[in-house]
Design a protein that fits this description.
This protein is mainly α and about 240 residues long. The longest helix has about 30 residues. It is globular and about 60 Å long. The N and C termini lie far apart (about 75 Å). About 5% of the residues have low confidence.
């Protein structure tokens, strides 16, 4: 009996089937695509919430309280754990694909020719590593308050954490604004390549709809980029400190 027949007849255990799929190049691409979609949705939601910084202070301070009290505080941690799992799976499958590609071509070409390869694709791995470093910095900056405990501990008139003042004080620092803008350039580069490759990774390849979906994804990536850099840049221009 061939291995294919054993799979069809259920002779192979489910764990072996799943393990084989995950360790294959096809499985790695599918997992990268699916986790990438989850991270896309997070970026959209994250931006929508953060744009409340341009409203009255109560808007974003109330939003922060809502997030931290949703499900008695358990929902936020569940979301964080899920996003962290997606992030590690996304990065892990990327490294797995890189290893498989190297193994498939153990001897380097005498002359390398890059055909139809965008700069975003060439910088995909580098941007991923830099984004991970930025994420660690960002979490320690605004989530734990490690880098600015004074503004992190500010309270508003109702005794809530004053996220409005914390963010505005942070982006009154031009150096910090530069860090965030450069990081968003890497996010944009990563999204540009990801939105072009996700459909191929999950097996969608339509001559009409695939280019349309890819174009919509690139447009959305641009909106995310512009929205994310608008926050630090506008705050710096109009004056960060309230």
């Amino acid at each position: 009996m061939s291995e294919g027949e054993r799979v069809v007849r259920g002779a192979l255990p489910f764990s072996r089937l799943v393990g084989g799929f995950v360790m294959s190049s096809v499985g790695a691409k599918v997992i990268m695509a699916l986790t990438g979609v989850v991270l896309w949705l997070f970026l959209i939601g994250h931006l929508v919430g953060n744009l409340q910084i341009f409203q009255v202070p109560d808007a974003i301070n109330s939003y922060a309280v809502f997030l931290h009290t949703l499900g008695h505080g358990a929902a936020l941690w569940a979301v964080r754990a899920s996003l962290l799992a997606c992030l590690f799976a996304h990065v892990g499958m990327g490294l797995r694909l890189a290893a498989l590609n190297r193994a498939a071509r153990p001897v380097a070409y005498a002359k390398t020719r890059r055909l139809r390869t965008s700069p975003a694709a060439l910088w995909m791995a580098a941007s991923g590593v830099l984004l991970f470093v930025f994420l660690v910095f960002h979490l320690n900056h605004f989530t734990t308050g490690m880098f600015d405990p004074a503004s992190f501990g500010l309270k508003d008139a109702e005794g809530r954490q004053d996220v409005y003042r914390m963010v505005r004080i942070a982006f009154s620092n031009p150096g910090l604004v530069v860090v965030y803008v450069v990081a968003q350039l890497f996010v944009f580069s990563h999204l540009l390549h990801g939105t072009a490759s996700v459909w191929q990774s999950i097996g969608v390849n339509h001559p009409v709809w695939t280019p349309v979906l890819s174009g919509m994804g690139r447009s959305l990536a641009l909106l995310i980029f512009l929205g994310n850099i608008a926050i630090p840049v506008i705050i710096l221009i109009v004056g960060g400190r309230p």
